[in-house]
UniProtKB/TrEMBL annotation:
<dbReference type="GO" id="GO:0006367">
    <property type="term" value="P:transcription initiation at RNA polymerase II promoter"/>
</dbReference>
<dbReference type="InterPro" id="IPR007582">
    <property type="entry name" value="TFIID_NTD2"/>
</dbReference>
<feature type="domain" description="TFIID subunit TAF5 NTD2">
    <location>
        <begin position="130"/>
        <end position="258"/>
    </location>
</feature>
<feature type="repeat" description="WD">
    <location>
        <begin position="586"/>
        <end position="619"/>
    </location>
</feature>
<feature type="repeat" description="WD">
    <location>
        <begin position="628"/>
        <end position="660"/>
    </location>
</feature>
<feature type="repeat" description="WD">
    <location>
        <begin position="387"/>
        <end position="428"/>
    </location>
</feature>
<protein>
    <recommendedName>
        <fullName>Transcription initiation factor TFIID subunit 5</fullName>
    </recommendedName>
</protein>
<dbReference type="GO" id="GO:0016251">
    <property type="term" value="F:RNA polymerase II general transcription initiation factor activity"/>
</dbReference>
<keyword id="KW-0677">Repeat</keyword>
<dbReference type="InterPro" id="IPR001680">
    <property type="entry name" value="WD40_rpt"/>
</dbReference>
<dbReference type="InterPro" id="IPR036322">
    <property type="entry name" value="WD40_repeat_dom_sf"/>
</dbReference>
<feature type="repeat" description="WD">
    <location>
        <begin position="544"/>
        <end position="585"/>
    </location>
</feature>
<dbReference type="Pfam" id="PF04494">
    <property type="entry name" value="TFIID_NTD2"/>
</dbReference>
<comment type="function">
    <text>The TFIID basal transcription factor complex plays a major role in the initiation of RNA polymerase II (Pol II)-dependent transcription. TFIID recognizes and binds promoters with or without a TATA box via its subunit TBP, a TATA-box-binding protein, and promotes assembly of the pre-initiation complex (PIC). The TFIID complex consists of TBP and TBP-associated factors (TAFs), including TAF1, TAF2, TAF3, TAF4, TAF5, TAF6, TAF7, TAF8, TAF9, TAF10, TAF11, TAF12 and TAF13. The TFIID complex structure can be divided into 3 modules TFIID-A, TFIID-B, and TFIID-C.</text>
</comment>
<dbReference type="Pfam" id="PF00400">
    <property type="entry name" value="WD40"/>
</dbReference>
<dbReference type="InterPro" id="IPR020472">
    <property type="entry name" value="WD40_PAC1"/>
</dbReference>
<feature type="repeat" description="WD">
    <location>
        <begin position="502"/>
        <end position="533"/>
    </location>
</feature>
Amino acid sequence: DRQTLLAVLQFLRRSNLRESEEILRREARLLSDDLGGSAATVASSSPGVAAATAVPPGKGGARAGAAGSLPGAGGRPLPAGPLGPGGALRFPQPRGLAVMLRHKGRFGGGVVVEDQPDVSAVLSAYNQQGDPTLYEEYYSGLKHFIECSLDCHRAELSQLFYPLFVHMYLELVYNQHESEAKSFFERFHGDQECYYQDDLRVLSSLTKKEHMKGNETMLDFRTSKFVLRISRDSYQLLKRHLQEKQNNQIWNIVQEHLYIDIFDGMPRSKQQIDAMVGSLAGEAKREANKAKVFFGLLKEPEFDVPLDDEDEEGENEEGKPKKKKPKKDSVGSKSKKQDPNAPPQNRIPLPELKDSDKLDKVMNMKEAARRVRLGPECLPSICFYTFLNAYQGLTAVDITDDSSMIVGGFADSTVRVWSVTPKKLRSVKTAADLSLIDKESDDVLERIMDEKTASELKILYGHSGPVYGTSFSPDRNYLLSCSEDGTVRLWSLQTFTCLVGYKGHNYPVWDTQFSPYGYYFVSGGHDRVARLWATDHYQPLRIFAGHLADVTCTRFHPNSNYIATGSADRTVRLWDVLNGNCVRIFTGHKGPIHSLAFSPNGRFLATGATDGRVLLWDIGHGLMVGELKGHTDTIYALRFSRDGEILASGSMDNTVRLWDAVKAFEDLETDDFTTATGHINLPENSQDLLLGTYMTKSTPVVHLHFTRRNLLLAAGAYSSQ
C-alpha cells in the first residue's frame, strides 16, 4: 500500500535513518520526489504520532498504521529486531514491510502498531457498542442453546464457553462497566472447565481498565486467536442460531477473536476433545502439523571395532540404538542403508569426529553388547542417587552419557560436579608444569592431570542466581548451566573453570541442553523464546519464537535437526534447526510442561506436565497416540531405555513409574482420516501399560538416566517435610 510505504519513509527520514530510507526506496522503486509531495499530506494526520494510514480491510484482512512509533507518542520506539548493522532496516523485498504492518484486529487510522502489539492498540479492539446489561443474557442464551442441542454437537460447541466468557468479561472491564463485569464473572466462572482455573484466577484480578495494560496473559489472549476444532455440522448449527437470534455481540467475538478450524465428518466425542484441549490458545490448527519432519536417524560413520576375547560371543548380537546418541554396532549391525525418514546427512553442519570420540564409540559398542534387553518380563534395576542435606536447594541434575559423573545445580547459585566412579576428578596442571612434560610419551593424557587436585566433588562458582538447568557435552569435556541471572555458562571439565557466559535472555533461563553431537546447544526461558547456540559463537544462531508463556524445558531430537520445547502455555512445539520454523504444535496438557523425551528411534516424543499425565506423540503424523495416567503430581523426568522398550517417568509425587513403550506404540491408528480430523482414540485406561511403581521415602524425582547397559539411575533431593 503506497500510502503506508510513504509514511514509513517519512518516519525514517525524520529519524535520520537515511541509509535505511535509501534501501527501502530502492526496494520499493520510489523516487525521492515522490516522498516530498504526497507524504506531506499523510504526515499531517496528527502531530507527535508517527503518521499512520488505514489499509482497506480487503487487503490481507488486517488494518494497521505505520510501523514504528515515536517515543512519547503513545507507542514504543521501533523494536530493535529488524535493524541491521549501522541501523539499516533489513527488508528482503517490499513484502517485508507488509509483514511488519500486518496485524490481526481492527485498528483505525492514526493508531501506531508494531510487530509487538502495542498495548493501547490491542485493547482498543474492545471498544464495543453492545449493551453491557445484556451480556449475561447473551451468554446464558447461548449456554441454553448448546446444552439443549444434540449430544453429538454439544461436546464440540461447549468449547466456545471459555473463550467467549473471557472475551465478554474483558470487553465489559475495558469499557468500564465494572459492576456488570463482576456479576458476569461471578455468575459464569463456575461453569468453566477445571483446567482453566489458573487462568481464571488471573482474570478475576483484572477488574479495572488500567489493570489490563500490563497484563501479558491478557494481551496474549487478545492478540492470538483462540483455536477451536469443530465439525462442519456443529458449526452450521451455531451460525444459524446466532444469526436467527440476531446475537451480533457473540457473533462479532466469534469472528474477531476465535479461529474455527472446520473439518468434514463426524463430530468428535467429549473424550476425544478433552484429550486435546486445555492450552492457552486452544488447539493447534491442523495446518500447523502438516509440514514434513525428517524424524529418522543419521547414518553412523563406519570404523572397525577391535574385538576382545570376551567379546567374541557378543559378536553376532545386533547393537541397538542407544538413548542419547543413536549408534549402531558396526561389528554386527545388519543394515548399512540410510533410514528413508532421515534428514540428508549434511542438512545441518555437524562437528567432525575426533579420535577420542571414536574411542568412546568403541567403548559404547562393547557396553551395548552386554546390554540387558528390557521388557515387561525383564524390568531394569533402579539405582537412586539421593542428595542428602541439600539445604542449598537442588534445582537441576544431569548425568554423563557414560554415567561417570553427576552434576547438581543449586538455588544458592553453585554448580556441583561429582564423580560416581572410583576415578576422582582432576584438573589439568598449570602452564608452567605442562611445559615440562614429554609430549611424545604414551601416557601424556595421564601426565597432564594434576594429582594434587584430585577430589570426588568440584564446586563451580559464577552464577548470581539459582541454577535451573545443567547439561554435559557428549564428549564429557564441557558442562552447561543456566540460571535465574539470565545467562548460560559453559564450563571446562578439564580445568573446572568457566569458559564463556552466553548472554541473550534478559530473564531467567529455565533449561538448557547440548545437542547429541555436541557443539550446538539450546536454551529456553521466561522471555518465551528458545535460542539455539554454538559453543564458539557468543550470539544465538536461531531464535525460536511462538510460545505464549515461559519456555520451561528444551530437548534435541536424536538426529539434532529438530528441537522440542515445552512451555507454561501448555503446548509443546517442535522446531526445525535449519530454518527456525515451527513444524509441530502439540496441545493436550492441562498444565505447564516440565519434561520431554524422544524415543531412541526418533519417531515418538513423550511429554510430562504439572497435570501428572504423560502424553505420547507420533512426530511424523503430528498426532497424540497415548496418555499415561498414574502420577499425582508434576512429572519432572522422562527417559526411554536405550532400546526404547521402556519409558521411565519420575515425579514430585516421590515415585518412579515404568511404562511398556513397545505396547504403547504398537498398532497405532495413523490413517489419513485420523490425521485429517484429529479423531484420536486413546485406550480408556493406561493401567495395562504400567509395569511398575517405585516409591522413595520422601524424595521427589528430578532426573532419570539409563546407563549404556540399561541400568536406570534416578536422582533427587531428600525433603524432610
